[in-house]
Amino acid sequence: MRWPSGTTIVDVADPRQPRKLATIDLPQGWHSHKVRVANGIMIVNHERLGESGPAEFGGGIAIYDVSRPSTPKLLTKWRTAGRGVHRYDFDGRYAYLSPTAEGYVGNIMMILDLADPARPVEVGRWWIPGQWKAGGEPYPWNNGPAPRCHHPLRMGNRLYVSYWHHGLFILDISDMARPKTVAHTNTSPAFAHPTHTCLPIPQPLKGRRIMVVADEDVAKLRPASPSFAWIYDITLEQLPVPIATFQVAGLDVDGSPQPPMSGCHQPSERFHGTVIPFAWFAQGLRLVDIADPFVPREVGHFLPNPADGEERPSSNDVTVDDRGLIYLVDRVRGVDIIEAKGVH
């Protein structure tokens, strides 16, 4: 994400006239590009960009009381070793993180209990065997990409965990202190793109349990055509099966390599019904209906103007509020607030 890289709180009661309420800045070389809010508590990540950021700032998450949004109050900063936390989920009690951690190679999965938000407590962690270098685990990936937990999402007693070029995992967290692997699958290196998001769908579709998986159009293992989204059947969760894909029509005509950030980035992790908003980098917002999970179809799109000095948009994040309004964040600068039928 481009500088500035902190957090801005905006009043969107009138979506046509957003009002900035507060800004939380970070030192150069660090960013907090993700935010989650529940029960008056806001979590933002602290992650180092490159090597220029002051090491003493430290990676982790900052936890704020935002019961008065115009005056966010820092309750505590939970610190971790290395670059920090990339992305996460938060249900109002537990935070499901992807931190770097002392003694491990790459990001792992970790669960924090925020029953007392000022005193977060680790309750469980999970990693791919081989990541725990300090524990003496043999490291089997010297000739390939290092493992990296991108982020977990919770539904019920399961975590759906994207693990970049190491695919995806479904974890049983009935006992949060001891997460257990239920399933693993990977489309890399057959496909060059890393796994970004594993989004379980709460309701059955055509009698099947469904998960939407987005590959991100960056960090390709080799020059490749733009990334896309997969639809998995997880009815038998031990054996996730891809049943469909979705790509923006006309984007990938013949499979030829294209520049990074031409294809998919991520789906909204909040949605209503069966229409999933996606941030599709240079292709803007794409609304994809998965009512028939075997045949996902686009039902709408919005292409924002490029930021000043840029040749094309870079739609990076998207979410939906309780009114059905869509918020599309550009990677370089700015946010569009969009009204669309069928997403509420």
Can you walk me through this structure?
This protein is mainly beta and 344 residues long. It has strands at 7-11, 19-24, 30-31, 35-38, 41-48, 59-65, 73-80, 85-90, 94-99, 109-113, 121-126, 151-155, 158-162, 168-172, 180-185, 195-200, 210-215, 229-233, 241-246, 266-267, 275-279, 285-289, 297-302, 315-320, 326-330, 335-338. The strands form seven sheets. Strands 3, 4, 5, 6 and 7 form a five-stranded antiparallel beta sheet that branches. Strand 8 (85-90) and strand 9 form a beta hairpin. It is globular. The two termini are 29 Å apart. The model has no long low-confidence stretch (mean pLDDT 96).
Spell out the key features of this protein.
mainly beta, 344 residues, 4-stranded antiparallel sheet, 5-stranded antiparallel sheet, globular
Name the overall outline: globular
Protein structure class? mainly beta
Rg for CA atoms? 19 Å
Sheet having the most strands:
5 strands, antiparallel
Distance between the termini: 29 Å
**Uncertain regions spanning at least 5 consecutive residues:** none
Output the number of helix runs.
Answer: 0
* Helix share bin: under 10%
What's the average pLDDT? Answer: 96
Elements, N to C (H/E): EEEEEEEEEEEEEEEEEEEEEEEEEE
Question: How much of the sequence is in beta strands?
Answer: 35-45%
The counted number of beta strands is 26
